[in-house]
Amino acid sequence: MKTQFMKKVLPLALLAATASTTAHASNWLMLQGTEPTNQAPRAKVWGFVQLQYQQTDDTKLKAGPYKGKSAAFNQIAPQLSSSSSFNVKRARIGVRGNNFPLDPKINYFLLAEFGNNGITTGKNASQGQLTDASVTINHIPGARIRVGLFKTPGSEKAMQAIGVYNYINFTNVVDRLLLERFFDTSTADTQRNGPVGAFRDTGVEVFDSFNLKGWDTSYAVMIGNGNGLARVDNNKGKDTYLYLSTEKVFGNSKGPRRHGLKFYAWSQNGKRTIDSTEKNRTRSGLGTTYFDGKYRLAAEYITAEGMIYGGTKGAGLPSDGATFSVQPDQAANGYYVDLGYRVVPNFELNLRYDYLDSGTKTNAKTGTNNDEERQFTTTTVGAQYFLNKKTTLIANYEIRDIKAPGAPSAAPVHQILDSLDNRIGLELRVVF
Asked: Cross-referenced InterPro entries, in alphabetical order (predicted)?
């Protein structure tokens, strides 16, 4: 798939790079990496806060080495110390701008996280973590250059600003395949060795956006460390990122909730060091979004090869001694379909179905079957009430299920997975 992707994407990217008409795009690449020419302030302070409450039934594990104890998948992240909790999930503040007298073609973007989540937890993490620090040089027509720490080009749900996310939690396929956790070993760690990757990397990106016969068409090519937030690389292999999108924008809408029909494809490839050896990590995907009038649709298909996050042993808690697992040579694929309907302008109903088939290759340890395979499905019923354009109330109910189709019928894993609860969530989000 990767070879076919490269053959299709690169010619289109080169075509886009040579087009002469500049579009006033407001896609994620442009929204997060550029500023309006001669309009943006030199320093604009901004941010957002997400206050959450989430709860499960706290069903105890029915089998396995941690039978009778709390299950990790029924606890509230990131501490996993309770099945019901209020949480300041995200509290971010940043500053961005351009139009300096010395050079108006250079802009910058700084952002820090002070909430309680995967970014501010893990070994050596602190509740005050830099998430973005980048400078964009807009001197070359058709090839803007962004340098520093920032969101990598890829999945729509990874690039989308969290301040306009339509749900409380990520889908299984985004959470387990794209929200990267970093460990030193594949089976012996009880905590991450740092913050989660947060869909970001430190490196150099060349990108731009163009109006091609009425379609806002964008490309991005990036090289990065592939080693998480605000850290230097830990091996000689660099991650490569490729991205291409085209969107028909409806009317004069703009900004993070603009109306349009969009198609996109992306690919990421790199190396990771685990158990003191280097392993491949490859991700790719394609998808579409639609938003106009009362209706909103998003769908995406994602594949993964190499390093796959495997959760905790027996679904136990790290505080009970359960270690995390990373499958170094596995494969996975999954998708989501997300629907939204605006009943009235300030009230939207949401329905999302997501599926992840993880560990689809033969278990390299046993060589006999797919006993590492886990099939995750979640149906999320939700609603959003927009108090104003920057304040939103969100309610979600997640119907969750996990199967182990490759495990023997008498294996304890089936009872362990039967311990999984549904989950409710409430969120108040304010953007300033």
From this structure: Porin_dom_sf (IPR023614)
Rounded to 5°, the CA angle 263-353-377 comes to 125
Of 269, 151, 264, which is closest to residue 209 (Cα–Cα)? Answer: 264
Query: What structural domains does the chain harbor?
Result: 1-431 (2.40.160.10)
Condensed to tens digits (0 to 9), the pLDDT of residues 300-343 reads 999 999 999 999 999 999 999 999 999 999 999 999 999 999 99
Query: pTM value?
Result: 0.91
| Chain segment 14-73, per-residue pLDDT in tens | 443 333 333 333 589 999 999 987 777 889 999 999 999 999 999 999 999 999 999 999
Confirm if 229 and 131 have CB atoms less than 8 A apart. yes
Q: Give the whole-angstrom CA distance, residue 400 versus residue 136.
A: 42
Tell me the longest C-alpha to C-alpha distance in the chain. 71
Q: Which burial class, exposed, middle or buried, applies to 28 when counting CB atoms under 10 A from its CB (0-12, 13-18, 19+)?
A: buried
What tokens were used for 268?
A: 């990421």
